[in-house]
Amino acid sequence: MKARGDLHVHISQLNGIPLQAEFSCRAGELLAVVGPSGGGKTTLLRMIAGLNQPQSGEIRCGEQLWFADGINLSPQQRHLGYVPQHYGLFPNLSAQANVMAGLDHLPKSQRRQRALQWLERVNLQGLPERLPHQLSGGQKQRVALARALAREPSVLLLDEPFSALDRETRERLYIELARLKSQLQIPVIMVTHDINEALLLADKLVLISQGQMLQQGEPRQVLLKPRNEAVARQMGLRNIFDAKVLPYDEQQQLQWLQFGEQKIACNTDARQRCGEHVRWVIPNQGIRFNAISSGRLSRSYNKLSVTIDSLLVMGESVRLVASIASIAYQLHAEVPLHLVQKLALAAGLQTEVALKSDLIHLLEHEPACISSDR
Amino acid sequence: MDWQSLWLSIKLAAISVLILIPLAVIIARPLAYERFPGKSWLEALIMVPLVLPPTVIGYYLLVSLGSDSFIGQLLQQYFDVQLVFHFSGLVLASVLVNIPFAVQPIQRSFEAIPQEVRDASACCGMGRLKQLFRVELPLAWPGILTALVLCFSHVLGEFGVVLMMGGSIAGETKTISIAIYDNVQAFDFSAAGNMSLLLLLFAISTLALTTALSRRMERHR
User: Fold this and answer.
1) Rounded Cα–Cα distance for residues B122 and B130 (Å)
2) Between residues B74 and A239, the one the model is more confident about
3) Which candidate in A21, A90, A135, B43 could, as Cys together with A139 as Cys, close a disulfide (CB 3.0–4.6 Å)?
4) Count of domains in chain A?
5) CA distance A241 to A257
6) Mean pLDDT for chain A?
């Protein structure tokens, strides 16, 4: 029987591959499970699919209990769509037969029609008779997606769906997945190690590392407000610094920090204890090179003197590393190429950058384990 | 040329293979995919005929199934079956001796099926039997073909265990290998030579055919 509705996952495993995770994914929502390789992402996905059995926990889809004490539905009973990392196509069957292989629950007369419809829906018309080895990576991925979706599954599970594709195909499939997601109205769980992919496609993000869930929430929220340093690093944030807490400025509602010889202002809701050492982080969009020269520096910006160490042109953007004056820290920034040219930024140049105070975020000390939505 | 012996050998090989292949599929699949206590012991037991001389296996079969043995008497009394010095006994002996030749290639070809493909078949809603017949067996086909050819050729040339278990009764247990041996004993080298050449040509051509077929299948995977 097909279950319709939200997916609730609570997994606890201490032995074997340790894994602790608890999250929900609403129908029509795409949840990205992000983390480094070997962190337990694929195991988590396999547990949701019923291919691995967790030690304890509960997995529920809508009203149907998939896993709990004494209950463990098989993958067949869960009626889900699963796209493995290398697509798992049946090499002896044509594209159409691959899609039809998942349609045994339909009357025979409808299977062919349904398979062709879905191949067309994933833009793969004209190739139904091809065998998997005659298809390109992107085409294989579409067949696997069509096979998973033609079943009208209760949940769609995608394991690193874009990792083996070239950039152009990947970009095209991003758009297709985003389009499909809004039409499907089922929970979609995507495992990826690519944070940018998750930021692009996901409605919700679950960060996982070494089997522990570090943080979950809206992707932008997690990016701007990482809970701790481990999360910040996984989100690709490189500007993580130490500072000492100074008294809170009630009048301006600013938290001041002593950063080397400089004072840094940040807008934070959480009051810090004066004199305490903290770690803080700033995302790339909080670092401005042109604000000072264009005279747009306001109280929301902190001014920092830096010397540019290196510039690396990467397409339309430039990766810049600069040493912060009076303190042994380096600032990493990604600046559009046109701006670098306009401001004549070059290695050895001493300049000033502005840090947006509302994007400065103070990190928690201890690494948090399982967390709820922030 | 002893056509009767040749026909008996072909019959023995065909029947043995018909029993061996399904039996090997049943044994090889859990060995390839599942973990269970005593797996290593079972694998070692299956491999025993590879290292044990066929005459030793033949001896044990003769002793344990002969008309004086407990099993032999049981079979005779309740089923009116006599295995020793009968064709059915040769089939049993051939099956036992050839189990490793059947199980090994089939197990390896099951193992070669990517985990993702098997996962996908389960997530496509296929039950165990459907997974086996629609996905696994078509993909394990090169291994099954290898097992089939290996076992057929091996049974066709089986000597030690056949001699011990069946002796040399014309039309019942005298296979082509026994006939070659008998001819050499009787100094009829021309007949022995003809039959040996036939077996040699058969062995080479079946192996060449298997290699070619496997290669062709690999290309299409």
Assistant:
1) 9
2) A239
3) A135
4) 2
5) 11
6) 87
β-pair partners for A373 = none
Closest Cα in chain A to B120: A88
Query: Does residue A251 surpass a pLDDT of 70?
Result: yes
Residues 6+ apart with CB under 8 A from A66: A3, A48, A50, A59, A60, A72, A73, A78
Across residues A61-74, what is the average pLDDT?
92
**Strand boundaries in A48-203, DSSP class E:** 56-61, 64-68, 71-72, 81-83, 156-159, 188-192
Buried b (16+ CB within 10 A) or exposed e, A5-39: bbbbbbbebeeebebbbbbbbebebbbbbbbeeeb
Please enumerate in sequence order all residues whose Cβ is within 8 A of that of B186, keeping only pairs 6 or more positions apart, or say none.
Answer: none
Q: Do B125 and A91 touch (CB under 8 A)?
A: no
CA–CA dist A255, A262 (Å, integer): 14
Kindly state whether residues A90 and A173 are assigned to the same domain: yes
Q: Is the pLDDT of residue A372 over 70?
A: no
Domain boundary among A174, A208, A233: A233
- To the nearest whole Å, the CA of B127 is away from the closest chain A CA by 7
pLDDT at A369: 43
Q: Tokens for B20?
A: 């061996």
- Same domain? For A152 and A269 the reply is no
Tell me whether B125 touches chain A (CB under 8 Å).
yes
Of B70, B67, B47, B43, whose CA–CA distance to B57 is shortest? B47
Rounded-to-integer distance, Cα A143 and Cα A146, Å: 5
- Cβ-Cβ pairs closer than 8 A, A with B, add up to 73
Q: Per the structure block, which two tokens stand in for A76? A: 């067949």
Exposed, middle or buried by CB within 10 Å (0-12, 13-18, 19+), for A284?
Answer: middle
In a domain, A2, yes or no: no
Instruction: Evaluate whether A47 touches A11 at the Cβ level (below 8 Å).
Output: yes
Give ipTM to 2 decimals.
Answer: 0.78
Check A104 against B130: CB less than 8 A apart: yes
- In chain A, which residue's Cα lies nearest the Cα of B221? A91
Q: Give residue B21's domain range.
A: 3-220
CATH number, domain containing residue B135: 1.10.3720.10
The model's confidence at residue A299, banded by pLDDT at 50, 70 and 90, is: low
Question: Is residue A131 very low, low, confident or very high in pLDDT (cuts 50, 70, 90)?
Answer: very high
pLDDT of residue B219: 62
pLDDT in tens, A347-364: 999 888 889 888 999 988
The predicted pLDDT at position A187 comes to 94
Residue ranges, chain B, pLDDT below 50: none
CA A305 to chain centroid: 33
From the list A228, A241, A326, the residue with the least C-alpha distance to A280 is A241
Q: Which of B5, B15, B8 is nearest to B152 (CA)?
A: B15
List of residues 6+ apart from A185 with CB closer than 8 A? A27, A28
Rounded to an integer, what distance in angstroms lies between the CA atom of residue A125 and that of residue A148? 17
Provide the Cα torsion B18, B22, B23, B29; round to 10°: 150
Domain limits for position A324 = 238-362
Name every residue whose Cβ is closer than 8 Å to that of residue B79 and which is 6 or more positions away in sequence: none
Distance separating alpha carbons of residues A340 and A318, to the nearest angstrom: 8
Q: Do B135 and A82 touch (CB under 8 A)?
A: no
